[in-house]
TrEMBL record:
The gene is ARHGAP26. GO terms for cellular component: cytoskeleton; cytosol; endosome membrane; focal adhesion. Residues 604-615, 637-649 have a biased composition (Polar residues). Residues 581-615, 637-728 are annotated as: Disordered. The keyword Membrane applies. One of its GO terms (biological process) is signal transduction. Signal peptide: none annotated. The keyword Cytoplasm applies. This is Rho GTPase-activating protein 26. One of its GO terms (molecular function) is GTPase activator activity. Residues 265-369 form the PH domain. It is found in: Cell junction, Focal adhesion; Cytoplasm, Cytoskeleton; Endosome membrane. Residues 700-728 have a biased composition (Low complexity). It holds the Pfam family BAR_3.
Length: 786
């Protein structure tokens, strides 16, 4: 029940009931006073806690903002950039939220604490002061009344009247004080209904404003959250694919580490113990040594693997001679002596094993090291980009699009290997291929998709070709989306016609698969993860190459999303061939061509026999005139702009066999082989009797050491016409400058080096020659012909 009302008329009577009612009001005021006091204390504790929370969150946000992701590789994908940026975005959101919290905390003191303290002091405090006054007047009135009633009636009438008037005055004053007190008590009871609750409401409103601000922040953050979620999923998918590749490479390295050594710019490198003479005797200090056969430079870096720190300054010497140390001449094993041109005395070194010493000895004697040639992981089947190959791919695509376009995990879920191999054997059987137009319904979709991917991996080389691998990766690393698309567009049209047509066929199909991603769950990103390593494979299997798989996936994503533009529109040629020649000449005059800016070149070793040697002898007399006439006609046509890089003079068309997978060195008289371009059809085994093909004895026969016209204009040589490499295919040449090889297909040399058997290479701006028995590529503007 509520409090009873205090009637002003009861103040005059001052009855016991009135006093009881008044006491109940006083007790309620005391209770309210204590509650407000505790509430103020709790409110201050809450504000202090909110300040500590805000400070902790700001510190957390600062930690997020200060951390920077560093990814493996020289570039980041858009997904990795988004993830790296996420920490700064999180920090910005938290800071924004804490700014609003601080505004709420600052307002909390004004809207909650101050009004409550004011109400407690001014209203409840005034009621307490009125009570004190009321109690004092009550005591005074009761004392005067008792004294007045004890007066003797024998007193004079004037004294009695004076006493009566005095009592009336005290009674009247008591009555007024009683009325004021009752009024104040009831006023406070009524005021607390709004002056006490209103600050609480204002505080809650501040809380609601804070939470609404958080809600608005969440809405604004929603787009980035969605983008980040997709980036995280894409990165996780790429990680799963990359991890298996890295783990596979690690296992191969464990099983046979010598066959998977990285191609190094040094002839030999590794740890050696070098004997150093001290005042107390000799000691063996561990060094990491590198040796370059061209400059005969040995660099020794003292390094302790246990501590991970260098033990002194680097030292470089020029090799004069190297002699194996006999076992009986020194107590240590695997030793050899080195003499330097620029340092007196003999340096004794200890290798890690007998095999290690043999390799160091061979390298320092000028013999080339054994590099690990590229080995394609995939089986070397009979898969080719011929009519049968296109038929197999079209059959697989037709089966997928008609029967399984909506199957979940399409192309990600693999089929049973034995079933896949059986299906491939049926599809690749010429008899079956002629009789059956479609794949039977008995084959599961996952078996068909796995067969399609396996067939693409069985090709002699990746569909997007080894020599364009680095160019595609560089294009995917460009920051601007339009630049990526433009560069990839241009690269696609540099592919041979068959490769481009097959890629077009695949991209159209994958675009159809991506359109049904709501059913099959295969988005463009997921398809990129599946087909990136299938369509683009690096020549050399390294961790760095595996880290670039994510960029291979991006290339495939771009091709799927823009397949209509990429394949149906020929990229614009903004420069004529003559302008290209001029710009290339200026570039080569000012800066030597970088070995890392061109694709690796594949060489093929042809088996030597008596018949082959006879043909090689015939070509020496006829090749010069044939090549000269073809190249001269090609150079005369350079002044005419070409709209398509694959178009060329019909006189320049030669027939070449398909490029094999091996990277074995080639002899000077051996054929240079490359994948066929759009105007250079490959010679199939069944086309030998075709009258349109050259006869085996013709100079244009594939068995002859011919080179085809390049698909892009060849830079003009800086030498005179008399010393042009084109007019004399096999000649000696002298190096004008030093050059350091960046790939095993190139030669490293110093100024003044003499090359044998120098002849044109199919790489624009490069020649092919022999140095110390090794054949490789030489920058054209680095040499002059003798």
């Amino acid at each position: 029940m509520g409090l009873p009302a205090l009637e002003f008329s009861d103040c005059c009577l001052d009855s016991p009931q009135f006093r009881e009612r008044l006491k109940s009001h006083e007790a309620e005021l005391e209770k309210t006073n204590k509650f407000i006091k505790e509430l103020i204390k709790d409110g201050k504790s809450l504000i202090a806690a909110l300040k500590n929370l805000s400070s902790a969150k700001r510190k957390f946000a600062d930690s997020l903002n200060d951390f920077k992701f560093r990814c493996i590789g020289d570039a980041e994908t858009d997904d990795e950039i988004c993830i790296a940026k996420s920490l700064q975005e999180f920090a910005a959101v938290l800071r924004n939220l804490e700014d609003e919290r601080m505004r709420m905390i600052e307002n909390a003191s004004e809207v909650l604490i101050t009004p409550l303290e004011k109400f407690r002091k001014e209203q409840i405090g005034a009621a307490k002061e009125a009570k004190k006054k009321y109690d004092k007047e009550t005591e005074k009135y009761c004392g005067v009344l008792e004294k007045h009633l004890n007066l003797s009636s024998k007193k004079k009438e004037s004294q009695l009247q004076e006493a009566d008037s005095q009592v009336d005055l005290v009674r009247q004053h008591f009555y007024e004080v009683s009325l004021e007190y009752v009024f104040k008590v009831q006023e406070v009871q009524e005021r607390k209904m709004f002056e006490f609750v209103e600050p609480l409401l204002a505080f809650l409103q501040g809380l609601f404003t804070f939470y609404h601000h958080g809600y608005e922040l969440a809405k604004d953050f929603s787009d980035f959250k969605t983008e980040l979620t997709i980036s995280i999923q894409n990165t996780r998918n790429r990680f799963e694919g990359t991890r298996s590749e890295v783990e596979s490479l690690m296992k191969k390295m464990k099983e046979n580490p010598h066959e998977h050594k990285n191609i190094s710019p040094y002839t030999m490198e590794g740890y050696l113990y070098v004997q150093e003479k001290r005042h107390f005797g000799t000691s063996w200090v561990k060094h990491y040594c590198t040796y370059q056969s061209d400059s005969k430079r040995i660099t020794m870096v003292p390094f302790d693997q246990k501590s991970g720190g260098k033990g002194g300054e680097d030292e470089a010497i020029i090799l004069k001679s190297c002699t194996r140390r006999k076992t009986d001449s020194i107590e240590k094993r695997f030793c050899f002596d080195v003499e330097a041109v620029d340092r007196p005395g003999v340096i004794t070194m200890q290798a890690l094993s007998e095999e290690d010493r043999r390799l160091w000895m061979e390298a320092m004697d000028g013999r080339e090291p054994v590099y690990n040639s590229n080995k394609d992981n995939q089986s070397e089947g009979t898969a080719q980009l011929d009519n049968m190959g296109f038929s197999i791919v079209k059959k697989c695509i037709h089966a997928v699009e008609t029967r399984g376009i909506n199957e979940q995990g399409l192309y990600r879920i693999v089929g049973v290997n034995s079933r896949v191999q059986k299906l491939l054997s049926i599809l690749m059987d010429p008899k079956t291929a002629e009789t059956e137009d479609d794949i039977c319904a008995e084959w599961e979709i996952k078996t068909i998709t796995s067969a399609l991917k396996t067939y693409l991996r069985m090709l002699p080389g990746p569909l997007m070709m080894y020599q364009f691998q680095r160019s595609f990766i560089k294009a995917a690393k460009l920051e601007n989306q339009e630049s990526r698309l433009s560069e990839i567009h241009s690269l696609v049209h540099r592919l041979p016609e068959k490769n481009r047509h097959m890629l077009h066929l695949l991209m159209n199909h994958l675009a159809n698969v991506a359109k049904n991603h709501k059913q099959n769950l295969m988005t463009v990103a997921n398809l990129g993860v599946v087909f990136g390593p299938t369509l683009m494979r690096p020549q050399e299997e390294t961790v760095a190459a595996i880290m670039d798989i994510k960029f291979q996936n991006i290339v495939v994503e771009i091709l799927i999303e823009n397949h209509e533009k990429v394949f149906n529109i020929v990229p614009d040629t903004q420069q004529s061939n003559s302008q290209l020649l001029l710009s290339r000449k200026r570039s080569t005059d000012s800066k030597p061509p970088s070995c890392s800016e061109r694709p690796l070149t594949l060489f093929h070793t042809v088996q030597t026999n008596e018949k082959q040697e006879n043909r090689n002898s015939i070509i020496n007399s006829s090749l010069e005139s044939v090549i000269s006439s073809n190249i001269n006609s090609f150079l005369r046509s350079n002044s005419t702009p070409q709209s398509n890089m694959n178009s060329s003079d019909p006189d320049l068309e030669v027939f070449k066999p398909n490029r094999p997978n091996s990277l074995a060195p080639t002899a000077p008289s051996e054929a240079y082989e490359d994948a066929p371009t759009s105007n250079q059809p490959s010679v199939e085994s069944g086309d030998i009797d075709n009258p349109q093909n050259p006869s085996p004895t013709s100079p244009l026969s594939p068995s002859w050491p011919m080179f085809s016209a390049p698909s892009s204009p060849m830079p003009t040589s800086s030498t005179s016409s008399d010393s042009s490499p084109i007019s004399s295919p096999l000649r000696k040449a002298r190096a004008l400058y030093a050059c350091k090889a960046e790939h095993d297909s190139e030669l490293s040399f110093t100024a003044g080096t003499i090359f044998d058997n120098v002849h044109p290479s199919q790489e624009p701006g490069w020649l092919e020659g022999t140095l110390n028995g090794k054949t490789g590529l030489i920058p054209e503007n680095y040499v002059e012909f003798l």
